[in-house]
């Protein structure tokens, strides 16, 4: 059998790369070069690589050489090489190693990844809170060892409303989806858990009189919720956007509210004009800093509704 040789050859079909090395005998195809000097340099590098590999092969025991030849022959029947087999098996070993990663370790990795991906501070805080709750029970367990049944039991035993349980399910699902994408697990077990039944309630719409009563009651009972109620009623911001809104984004002097891209549901910045009726409600709060939504807003809103005589 003729031994393959390495020689720089002329290539007539290209004016920019007129020289090439034919490496097809070494399973590498052809390499093209602009100058003969570049081609000669690559030829020398290829020779050195093959001589180095040859010296290593000479030092191998006969049993190892026989195994290599046998493996190469068996793989060739499937159109694969020893390098293909090595990459596949190394990937397999890495997956086994990754299977031992715990919930605590993966949660930290997920949060770091989400932060680098540009998710909002509010989203990260909520995700961290729910993953920490999950980690109280499963923190030291390998993520790959947690079963659908265990997840179902944990979700059902949460002492919370169906909507809150659904939020926990979604956030824990983020953890397992990440593990699936990283091939730590074969499939996301959260997808096979039972989803809580959520009642699709119609949006709460207040009449003019009800809205007026609500704002007046808020001014007396919990004045710090007036801005969030007024902005929701007169500016048309989404609930999630109001929760993220900061006072430095409410420009009363300029007459607008800035919804930044990081806080908008559509991830696009927009400017909302402050109408005169909204400006009147917000005027007493000019100069405030921090989030527009106060601490414990749900509890305060319940008190405001009760004071306004609204129970729907």
Write a structural description.
The chain has about 300 residues and is mainly α. It has 3 domains: about 10-100, no CATH class; about 105-190, DNA polymerase, domain 1, CATH 1.10.150.130; about 210-310, Orthogonal Bundle (hpI Integrase, Chain A), CATH 1.10.443.10. It has 12 helices and 6 strands. The chain has helices at about 35-60, 60-75, 80-100, 105-115, 120-140, 150-155, 160-180, 210-220, 225-235, 240-245, 275-280, 295-310, and strands at about 10, 20, 30-35, 250, 255-260, 270-275. Strands 1-2-3 form a 3-stranded antiparallel β-sheet, covered by helices on one side. Strands 4-5-6 form a 3-stranded antiparallel β-sheet, with no helix packed on it. Helix 5 crosses helix 7. The radius of gyration is 33 Å and the shape is elongated. It starts with 7 loop residues before the first strand and ends with a helix. The model has no long low-confidence stretch (mean pLDDT about 85).
